[in-house]
Amino acid sequence: MKRPVILILTKEIGLYNTFRDNIRDIFGSYIQLRSNHFPPVDLGGLDLILSSGTDNLHEDIVETSEVTAPLLIANRSIDFNRLEMLFELSEGTRCLLVSNAMDVAYESIAMLERLGFDYLRFTPYSPDMIELPDMNDIDVAITHGLVDLVPENMDRVIDLGNRSLDLSTLFEIAKVLGQTLHQANHMTMDYVRNFVRIGRELVTASQNEHDMNTYLEAILDAVQEGVIFVNQEGEITLFNQEASAILGIDAQAALGESWTEVVSAFPIKQAIQAEESVPRQTFKVQGLHLVTKMNPLRLNGTFSGIIVTFQDVTHVQQLEQEIRRKKTEAGLTTKYTFADNAGDSNLMAQTRQTAKKLARSAYTVFIKGESGTGKEIFAQAIHEHSFRCRGPFVAVNFAGITQSLAESELFGYAEGAFTGAIRGGKPGLFELAQNGTIFLDEIGDAPLNIQAAILRVLQEKEVMRVGGNTIVPTNVRVIAATNKNLEHMITEGTFREDLFYRLNQLPLEIPPLRDRTEDISALIDYFLEQKRIQMTFPPDVIETLSAYHWPGNVRELEGLITYLSVIVDGPGPTLDDLPGYIKEENVSSAELNRIVNLLENTGDKPVFKEILQCLVLNQNTDRGIGRHTLKSMMTTPISEGQLRTKLDTLKRCACIQIGIKKQGTKITRQGRHILERL
Ligand SMILES: Nc1ncnc2c1ncn2[C@@H]1O[C@H](COP(=O)(O)OP(=O)(O)OP(=O)(O)O)[C@@H](O)[C@H]1O
Fold it and tell me: Where does the PAS domain lie (predicted)?
């Protein structure tokens, strides 16, 4: 009996080999096979022409008169064993389906989608296509045995092997060649079994994996933190929705990339190298404030990568900003600018000039000056003159503030931090001052442990609420002020030296009013106008006021004007209207000269001068100096008895006040005038 002959027409020989194997698998070697790849092609005695359909290879042959054999265009299936390679691709993977003709590529895509790979994103490709797709959008190329046609720049290629003949074609062949299905049955059983096995695996695997991935992704996407997993090779294998939203990076584009390409600003290197956790860190990326944590992932004890979780705290800051805005509306704003700063003495003009320069820098300003000299109004003017002027100005006065109050006031507290804590907690003043300035007034009065906490905030630039565990990064400019002699307090151990140096970056000294009496007229005018008081101060009153030593400085002058506005009946105050303590201190020049002569005539002028100088050094402390301390400060050798006599003389000349018991000795204003003349 003649063996049936089939002519197989394919464009590539590889496909012929596949068809040949398929036919041999079903029909054994009973059928004779010919191919267009083995010329000259014998067209005689053909029983069937089986064409792959590509490029209409069969057309010329079919038209040849001697060929009467039927033509069968192959329907093609897939090598199911190779499909497993597609299971590795995650949902949404962008696949370039490479074929030698566009219609074949479309057909292959349709088949893969029907088989359940519809969660992949296919783009058809054939070298003859007119408009090439953007290869940057492609993750992997998939082809059926046409690896040579894959565009060069593709990193990953999956070759599913040549598409085999599908069952319908094999049955058709059997029918045309008069083969019974019965004969083919045992062969097709293998084929079908294979198909069913792979089909089932495909469905369960893709379904389970799909479900599992969807489930995990849903969890990771529901997490309000960015989550990135970087494997031990430094490759990103997980990038959740929040990470994508925070960083504005497409998750699919990040996957498979090295972290150094995608999130190079993250401190991941340290974690990968050490294979250890990295404690919480705050850093800035693209103008965002991120708080990040890194933990190693170990599977069966082997390090497999780093899980990076991070939060964008910029939006926390925005929420806080909103609270702050409300607080600002409630009064956390400044009233004074440099224009409101009255006084045209050279000393004040210079001080203002310096303050304006300091305002422009970001460093901490440390204002020193006696009480009432205008430290707060300088602090406000500096804030107004700085680039933070649109932010809040928050003032804290440490005088008389208790330790526990200071802590919760400064740093806020978390919900439930203590009995009576309001729901939702409360932001502290550092938080309220975000993007603005915090003014730490009377810092010398801050309790020691608050000093330590302030130092921490200044160093770390973040605060944690009392009883809370959330860290809020702070972006606050600090201005501190004191009327105390902090250097003295440091030696006493009541002020932290490290905090002092931290604060003392840009020192600014506000001179006492007694040193700039030329400002008195301008200040009087300023207060009269501000209080809408109609009064004129005659020259003799101004002169008397200029001679007074103003221990309470500008605040005292302001108080005096309020007092005079109440008691003065006429157009302006007279000398009689001034309080007695002001007039009493009004010492004439002649009187001062008399005292200077008296001290000079004792022959001990340098000793008197040194005593007064030591007392001046101590002027910023509330308490006077004891005799022992004074003696130890002096370089002139002097006995205890001699010092007591000298102090008595100075007291009789009203140059010093000697306190009873432990109040110590202080220099008076008259003492200062005398010192200037000695
Ligand atoms: N140059 C000035 N021009 C106008 N007003 C001033 C000036 N200096 C001080 N004042 C006024 O004097 C008062 C005291 O000023 P401020 O509170 O700033 O002093 P301070 O040095 O901070 O005092 P303390 O050390 O007691 O806190 C305020 O009412 C302020 O308006």
Answer: 212-258
